[in-house]
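Why this split exists: single-chain examples teach little about how molecules sit against one another. For that reason, every record in the complexes split bundles all components of an assembly together and asks for one structure covering all of them. Below is a record exactly as it appears in the raw files.
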Amino acid sequence: MNFNATLIGQLIAFTVFVAFCMKYVWPPIIAAIEERQKKIADGLAASERAEKDLELAQSSVTDKLREAKDEASKIIDQAKRRASQIIDDETQRGHTERENIIAQGYAEIEAEKNRVKEDLRKQVAVLAISGAQKILAREIDAQAHSDIVEKLVAEL
Amino acid sequence: MAYYETTQDYINHHLTNARMCSTDEGIVFNKACEDVGFWVWHIDTIGWSAFIGISFLFLFWRVGKKATTGVPTKTQAFVEMVVEFVDDSVKSSFHGSSKLIAPLALTIFVWVLLMNLTDLLPVDLFPWIAGMIGQYGFGMDPKDVYMKIVPTTDINTTFALSIGVFILIIFYSLKIKGIKGFTKELTMQPLNHWAFIPFNFVIETVTLLARPLSLSLRLFGNLYASELIFILIATIGYLQLPLHFAWSVFHILVLPLQAFIFMMLTIVYLSLACEEH
């Protein structure tokens, strides 16, 4: 228990240490700690916000998906309808075409028939004339009776 | 024990500080200083406490300078842990706003803790090293070379701390309450009547003075006693090994506790000083 000048020395040392600590040691460390605490708080808030955003996005995705499905089914319906329409139209067109072709065929056949008929008629006329010539060669002049033959031919 | 004739010599030697003083013959040491009176310096106390304080402040200062707000290094994490511990203690007891209290508490806690922890170093180690240096370096008798390394077992250290705190108590009392408020506190409590002013004054003055006194004597008493027991254990031969171990383990608890109590009471006293009635 002997007090002496050491007391003064220690008091000075204590004062200097506290002053140094107050000026150079405490402020940067506590600033770093508080800054980090703020960062962590901000990070937590951001993650919470992100979670909410995610939830929103998920619900909007579900909506969009449903919309897309509706749209798709609508499109498919439309396509089916269009397809059946096309098939109907084509069938119709095919029928018409067929009928046309058939009608044309008939017309051609008719024309051919007429032509053949004409040919036949002409040949028959020639045959008839030649037959008649042969029969009448002896007694009828071809020139004199040609008007009768002509008439005959016209009747055929 | 080698140099000492009696156990008492040994204990006395280990409980004496290295002294330095200035006399007519110039600067002299130890036994030559016995009659000088007040102007004697305990160079071991001053040296060790300054060394410890500067080391601690240097470490914390360097960490503070390089402090990152991102992922901290291990040293920074450790320093921040200590700082946050002190900051929490301050925030839980001190409700005013002061830029001084927290750094003061940090300085007191870490400095006192480290000074206390030197108590766990072997009691003979540093006196022996100092004795060797004195004997072979300066041709001194090793019995005349003193080296008491635990600064808090020197009452000058603990009183320096508590006087510093006491000055702050007075300063904050005057600053927050004003001279009038402080005088009123000293004279109008606990019995608020003019006739009791002298009685109140005596009681309140004793309360005020008891704070630094108890603060310093508690720390000094604990540390001095523990150092004394360490030295006593060191005198009893081979049985000292388990006893040293047991006493050291016990002091792993006591030494930080004493540092914590000193810091906590400092905060409490200063918060009382800052409180308005």
